[in-house]
Amino acid sequence: MSARGVLYVHSCPPALTPHVEWAVAAGVGGRVGLSWSDQPAAPGTLRAEVAWRSRPGTAGRFAAALRGWSLLRFEVTEDSSPGVDGERYSYTPTLGLFRTTVSANGDVMVGEDRLRVLLASVRGGEALTAGLDSLLGTAWDNELERFRHAGDGAPVSWLHEVG
């Protein structure tokens, strides 16, 4: 079974780029050379995008490997595949890691149990709004949005799992 997705390294200090490439290589089982470019939203840092094809769960492996470097900002997506939901991981130094399930068109999916817990635990509109924002990852989207736009038109590499 094969899955695919995209890793967006939104900002990375130049000294960490080899470590990021090693972590990505471990996720796909082969050598990796990412195309790094300047990140105008955070001068002095670099950005890279890489589309990947590998086994399901690769997005989670990338996120687990990269979250150890607190100076990175990244997102990694995995499209749904037969029997496996899609997912997105977002990481910022100030907020840490956020994971969500995503639909085929990229919308955040919130399970009914999580909604029931939220409804049972909040009173009032402001608390409900804050709870929904938390479930949707709004803080991560707000923090990463300027980095996403700064990467428009940047080169994208392709990775495939090795044997």
The figure for the number of domains is 1
Beta strands, count: 8
| Intertermini distance | 13 Å
SSE string: EHEEHEEEEHHHE
Rg computed from alpha carbons, rounded to a whole number of angstroms? 17 Å
Structural class: alpha+beta
- So what's the overall shape? globular
Low-confidence stretches: none
Main beta sheet = 8 strands, mixed
Quickly count the helices.
5
Q: What percentage of the residues does DSSP assign to strands (E)? A: 25-35%
Average pLDDT number: 89
Q: Percent range for helical residues? A: 25-40%
Can you describe what's shown?
The chain has 163 residues and is α+β, with helices and mostly antiparallel strands. It contains 5 helices and 8 strands, in the order βαββαββββαααβ. Strands 1, 2, 3, 4, 5, 6, 7 and 8 form an 8-stranded mixed beta sheet that branches. α1 (17-28) runs antiparallel to α2 and α3 runs antiparallel to α4 (125-136). The two termini are 13 Å apart.
Summarize the structure.
The protein has 163 residues and is an alpha+beta fold. It has one domain.
